[in-house]
Design brief:
The chain is an alpha+beta fold. The chain folds into three domains: 7-121, Butyryl-Coa Dehydrogenase, subunit A, domain 1 (Orthogonal Bundle), CATH 1.10.540; 123-228, Butyryl-CoA Dehydrogenase, subunit A, domain 2 (Beta Barrel), CATH 2.40.110; 231-378, Butyryl-CoA Dehydrogenase, subunit A, domain 3 (Up-down Bundle), CATH 1.20.140. The protein contains ten helices and ten strands. It has helices at residues 7-23, 34-47, 68-81, 83-102, 105-117, 230-266, 278-307, 312-338, 348-355, 366-378, and strands at residues 122-125, 141-145, 148-159, 166-172, 182-188, 194-199, 208-219, 223-224, 268-269, 272-273. The strands form three sheets. It has a four-stranded mixed sheet with strand order 1-4-5-8. Strands 2-3-7-6 form a four-stranded antiparallel sheet, with no helix packed on it. Helix 1 (7-23) packs parallel to helix 3 (68-81). The longest helix has 37 residues, at 230-266. The two termini are 30 Å apart.
């Protein structure tokens, strides 16, 4: 990745790779308290200094500005070891970057240093039962009452629901203005009127659920930016994180390829290692080539974002689309090479098979990425 990395990036990659192999490769028990494990993992990520890359230097971060390349490096390496570690890291960035973008000095000082240390768990609450890809159609409202706002509505598929210390919540302050009437608020988890309605079980377990807002009253000081800035804040945040989803896919795919190579060299059938059969060799060659192409797209997109290139958004959509789809194929082939052993619950490739699926959906489905790419071309 020399064209897109500085020496600092290479050092960070080596650091997080070593840490991941020492701390995440041992695996974990399937039957564990998920919320407890998430909290423990986040503390470990904070102690290792990785969460500092989610906030600017002024508030405890590493660089003057949050870099997409840093996020991608960390997500690739963490995903190679453990999907939950990757998710928790990503959510610290996703849940705090709106504050970095639009927060007041007081808001930044209150939340960002705690995000960087792992003392506070962040969350991003935009998705609703009837508002997924079409975020402008959200129905949660924030009604002004003097110097306060009352939030009412339901948020669904909210990662870190139930364990977050604060949520960046998107709600409509002017429903008649539709997309231009969406605003963003910082809502502390312990505020009255906010309830965890449901913990949602997914194919690949991580803390996620449904939040209910019932006359949830927050001060005017909880507003991020100005009224009506919410959708802009959300989209700029997702623009930063989009290519990092591709990086997580690369991490899953890299681990899958490594496991497939290792297994094919030790598994013997018909008197020899299955790696000696041309059919397996062709599978490995296809997997490695797709992985390299995905990695190049991801880091090109991250570099374009950090450099402020005008086509960064399109490149990020390409990276997210291709890397997540390719990772699905690579993991599938790794499981095929493992045969029946790949189906055993708790095995690495079985876990990867479940972990990789969500990446083609969240933060913009593959179909949405195709629309973004095509519309960019047609302009």
């Amino acid at each position: 990745m020399l064209p897109f990395f500085s020496q600092d990036h290479s050092q960070l990659q080596a650091q997080v790779r070593l840490w991941t192999e020492n701390n995440l490769f041992a695996g974990h028990e399937i039957e564990v308290d998920l919320d407890q494990r998430a909290r423990e993992l986040l503390k470990q990520l904070g102690a290792a200094g990785f969460l500092k890359h989610t906030v600017p230097q002024e508030f405890g971060g590493v660089r003057e500005q949050v870099e997409a390349r840093d996020l991608c490096i960390l997500r690739e390496e963490l995903a190679r070891g453990d999907a939950l570690a990757d998710t928790l890291f990503a959510l610290q960035a996703l849940g705090s970057f709106p504050i970095t973008l639009a927060g007041s000095a007081a808001q930044k000082q209150n939340y960002l240093p705690r995000v960087a240390s792992g003392a506070a768990i962040a969350a991003f609450a935009i998705t609703e039962p009837e508002a997924g890809s079409d975020v402008a159609s959200l129905q949660t409202t924030a009604t002004r009452r003097g110097q306060q706002f009352a939030l009412n509505g339901t948020k669904r598929f909210i990662s870190n629901a139930g364990i977050a210390d604060f949520y960046v919540v998107f709600a409509s302050t002017a429903p008649e203005k539709k997309a231009k009437g969406v605003s963003a608020f910082i809502v502390d988890a312990n505020v009255s009127g906010l309830a965890l309605k449901e913990k949602t079980k997914l194919l690949s377990p991580h803390p996620i659920g449904v939040l209910e807002f019932t006359d949830c009253t927050v001060a005017e000081a909880a507003l991020l930016g100005a009224e009506g800035d919410g959708l802009k804040i959300a989209l700029e945040t997702l623009d930063l994180l989009r290519c990092s989803v591709g990086a997580a896919a690369v991490g899953f795919a890299q681990r899958a390829l490594e496991e497939a190579i290792r297994y094919s060299k030790t598994r013997r059938q018909f008197g020899r290692a299955i790696s000696e059969f041309q059919g397996i060799e062709f599978k490995l060659a296809d997997m490695a080539t797709e992985l390299e192409a995905a990695r190049l797209l991801v880091y090109q997109a991250a570099w374009a974002h950090d450099c402020g290139n005008t086509d960064a958004k399109q490149k990020s959509s390409m990276a997210k689309f291709y890397a997540t789809e390719a990772a699905q194929r690579i993991v599938d082939q790794a499981l095929q090479i493992h045969g029946g052993n790949g189906l055993i619950a708790g095995s690495i490739v079985e876990r990867l098979y479940r972990d990789v699926r969500a990446l083609r959906i969240y933060e913009g489905t593959s179909e949405i990425q195709k629309l973004v790419i095509a519309r960019g071309l047609l302009k």
